[in-house]
Every structure is written in C-alpha cells, then in structure tokens.
Amino acid sequence: xxxxxxxxxxxxxxxxxxxxxxxxxxxxxxxxxxxxxxxxxxxxxxxxxxxxxxxxxxxxxxxxxxxxxxxxxxxxxxxxxxxxxxxxxxxxxxxxxxxxxxxxxxxxxxxxxxxxxxxxxxxxx
Length: 125
Fold this sequence. Notes:
Distance between the termini: 38 Å
Strand content: 25-35%
C-alpha cells in the first residue's frame, strides 16, 4: 500500500482578502493556485475560507467566527531582515512579543495573523 504524501498545511480563514494581504503583501509569500475560497501558496501553506470548508466537511458552517486560531499551532517563517520585517508589521497586528533571543540563540518575534493563528518569524540559523 502506498503511503500518503504530505502536500500542505491548510489554515481556516474568515476573510481571504485580509489573509492574503497578511501572508502575501506583508510576509511576501506567492500564490501558486487561487480557487477563490481556497488559495495555495508556493511555500506549502494553503488558506481556505473557513465557512466554505466547514460546509464542505460538515454540511453547513459551524457558526459565526471572528477568529479560527486556537493557540495550538504555529506557522514558522525565516528572513535575513528580521528587524525590517517587524517594522513592516501594521499597528493592528497583535504581537505576542518583539524580537527576542531564544535559548538556542536564534532571534525571533511572534504575532497573531488576522485569524489568531500564531506566526513566528525568525532569523536563519
């Protein structure tokens, strides 16, 4: 029997336009495929309109949600321009903490995306 092949991580979003602005415009990610309610980025991350995905999986949307993130998953990005990336974060971005040096010596900052998913941005190790 062939084993399954991992393709991407799919994140539920409440507002695709807002999420694309965060991941593409702010974090510089590139769209590989855009199917409206489902957008796959070139980095292995996919965004899916949460209500549409809930309807597909459960037959109807689960209910009104303002944020899908639950604080138990982190999306990790690296950049050579960590301070510049932090400076580009809009005022409304909720920071968990500014740039800090971790126990293993890497500098990172953490924030929430528009749906409350944790995003970590670090310098390359």
